[in-house]
Amino acid sequence: MSRADAPEDRVFELVDKVLDALDLDAELEVTREGEEIQVKVEGDDLGAFIGRHGAMIDAVQHLAYKVAGSGGAAGPRVNVDAAGYRERRRQVLERQADEAATRAESSGKPVALDAMSAIERKVVHEHLKARGGVETWSEGQEPDRHLVVAPLR
Questions:
Q1: Based on the structure, what is the number of domains in the chain?
Q2: Could you give the CA distance from residue 97 to residue 126 in angstroms, rounded to a whole number?
Q3: CATH assignment of the domain containing 28
Q4: What is the mean pLDDT of residues 26-39?
Q5: Do 67 and 11 reside in the same domain of the chain?
Q6: How many whole angstroms separate alpha carbon 116 and alpha carbon 129?
Q7: DSSP-assigned letter for residue 6
Q8: pLDDT of residue 153
Q9: Is 147 helix (H, G, I), strand (E, B) or coil?
Q10: Are 31 and 5 in contact (CB under 8 A)?
Q11: Rounded to the nearest 5 degrees, what angle is found at the Cα of 92, between the Cα atoms of 85 and 132?
């Protein structure tokens, strides 16, 4: 890869190589809007690209962020999605977060959620911050790091 390429070109090349390595027939679209690069992968049977519990797509997103940067400087934010996985997962996480917040508020006690990736924990933190009424924090070590939802005192 040529470092002279635009960040979105480097991201396209990386994701295209991953798709080839997985022998997936998929459409790849990479666009840049300001300081954010959006990667959309569409096709049949993208399970290998998404991975178990989204581990593969999270890893690809992390690598894409790294190649988007140049010379060690932070690059644009990169979001990688495949077949609408991110939106579906966000909806599930927000529903689980709301249920945990309701339980915490009604019981007055903290509620621990299942272990999740850093990307997923961030989604829950932001959702519950906007919802209000509870506070959140992370506990544990990877890969068992999880969120705790507690009522505000």
A1: 2
A2: 10
A3: 3.30.300.20
A4: 95
A5: yes
A6: 18
A7: -
A8: 76
A9: strand
A10: no
A11: 125
